[in-house]
Fold this protein.
Amino acid sequence: MAKDPGVLTERKKKILKAIIESHIANGEPVGSKYLTENKQIECSSATIRNEMAELEDMGYLEQPHTSAGRIPSELGYRFYVDSLIEDYSVTAKEVEQIHQMMRSKVSELDQIMNMASKVASHLTNYTAIAVKPRETLVTINRFETIFIDEYHFILVLVTSGDVVKTKNITTTRSLTRAFVGQVADSLNTHLAGKSAQEINLPLMMSLETEFAPYSELVSPVMKVVYDTMSVLDQGEMQVAGMDRLLEYPEYKDMESLKRLIGTIEEKEEIVNLVSEAGRDQHNIVIGSESEVKVMENSSLVFKPVVRNGKTVGAIGVIGPLRMDYARVLALLEAVTGNVSELLDDRKLDERKIEDKGDTNHG
Amino acid sequence: MAKDPGVLTERKKKILKAIIESHIANGEPVGSKYLTENKQIECSSATIRNEMAELEDMGYLEQPHTSAGRIPSELGYRFYVDSLIEDYSVTAKEVEQIHQMMRSKVSELDQIMNMASKVASHLTNYTAIAVKPRETLVTINRFETIFIDEYHFILVLVTSGDVVKTKNITTTRSLTRAFVGQVADSLNTHLAGKSAQEINLPLMMSLETEFAPYSELVSPVMKVVYDTMSVLDQGEMQVAGMDRLLEYPEYKDMESLKRLIGTIEEKEEIVNLVSEAGRDQHNIVIGSESEVKVMENSSLVFKPVVRNGKTVGAIGVIGPLRMDYARVLALLEAVTGNVSELLDDRKLDERKIEDKGDTNHG
DNA sequence: GTTAGCACTTGAGACCTTTGAGTGCTAATC
DNA sequence: GATTAGCACTCAAAGGTCTCAAGTGCTAAC
């Protein structure tokens, strides 16, 4: 495909940039005449045609059919975002909107991220996602137990990363407050520092002897612990503004739209993609660059959200290849910046508390 | 529209039923000739035409255009599900699939429900939802606190309905283990039995005096409590198999599809609909019967999941008006039945534990 | 290296016709 | 009075033809 991607004359770059930006704006193939008339390029349409032919040879452009203009190829977009793109300046109004929408009462990470994805979708007019990446190494930090009544107690599990999970445990055998306290102690002795993988049969057996005559408790408790840890490993993802996909003519094709929606809903692959990404910079995945075959017709742009130096999630945008990358990048920057600010522990004086807890129903 | 919906001759019922079932199966308008040839109706096409004309007058049928067959109206579907529908028998294979898919290791309600919605979508081939209904009256049951270190403790909040939420609280002022214990005691004295609405300024002020010199703690703690309670009120909803919508020609129309996807993603309105529903029976909402204007072209069928006599959620299916109601009803019955079984406390002997806890990250 | 000019290609859209399924109505029949 | 055969009528869907306009590649002149 590409002949010599390194050597693009200034004029070629200018033409390529003009084509890409026109196509992003209009969604239609761009012709040579259009460029001479609407973009400041000082040469005739014939010259542009020659240049375009060469750019096509190099793999930056494509032609839907002989008598149509050119559209950028994936390689073209890639070159554009790497070398040609100009910073978009977020407008005051957009900043205002971000602040407005993020200024909600909630302080839970999940909800902040969720709201951030809504903001991102709203401002960019693309489908947006909020991802909580897969945790690679979750270990048990400590246990606490709370005695409720004879037959119920709550198991509190604090993991690395200050994640707290609680579980109601119901037994058929009556308990005492003291015993429930011992449970926590034993669990702490045996399990602190362990990861899900390290919970194995010998461990369980040693616990069973220790807990006699409540050995019946061991396996359910361990199951809960194991469940909890596994869930944490998994990552999460929320979607906002899925319906916006339908506004773009590239998703007129029902079949590919169906597949894309399926992939988004499945979450798995996208969470993977995001989890593997670097921590600080923007990440742009253009079409078939990703291993997610199904995203072939789409681009994913996301930016991690960092709190206290730790990546706690990412906000991203999914849309057609001809996404307005400049604008999306700038807006994601603004949104994640805002989220980080909300999460920043150094601003405790202002908010006084930080919450990392979570809930579950039963 | 309707002249006298009560008096349908047996033959009219038979014809109506045949039309609806044909249309559900094929998605196309049904003509008189088709009926004589494929359904056992002992009269000529002309007679059927007369009958169909009358059924149309009564409001049970509609005609897309003069030279087309008839399709059922919403009223027609309503009459069908109320009076004409025949029970569908879930096949052994389907039962097997339900068991297979539900036999996963997890025991958390959220995850069970989520899996159930996937099963429902898979088996019915419609979009499915798992709803956790709005709680109407959540009150505080009790507090516990867990001392972590000088600057951190965990606040555990047990609400009515045995829902547990935990929050990490970070302070700028150093704490003692004893003090953290007192916090719980105070909170219990002042807040036990209260609902979110009852947390007001006077209450906060009385707490602030009590907590001096840690009065700075009061407002953040109360915020957490309030947040928590509000979130519980809200209800939740998960979607599975959204892409399946695109398989039905009635959603070819991008504009209405966009609106439907928007409504589903928004969740709000559907959660309302489900939350208001009765507890035990099936619920069938056909098109514009619901106040959710946007579902005008679609039907929602759902069945509550009951645990220990309490409605803890619902599994439902969203699809075109010409949904295969009989099959959907039977499969939802089977799926919710399976879920209830998994949740049933009486089977504790088998699983020994019950978990109601939940998680959150930070 | 650039440009004017021209023949060529091709999808989109407008318009027309055909086709066939299905109807409503009338008059004959049971 | 209910049923049915028969027939004229309607209308969307499908296919065909034509035109239109945008855009190209190429050649030859600058």
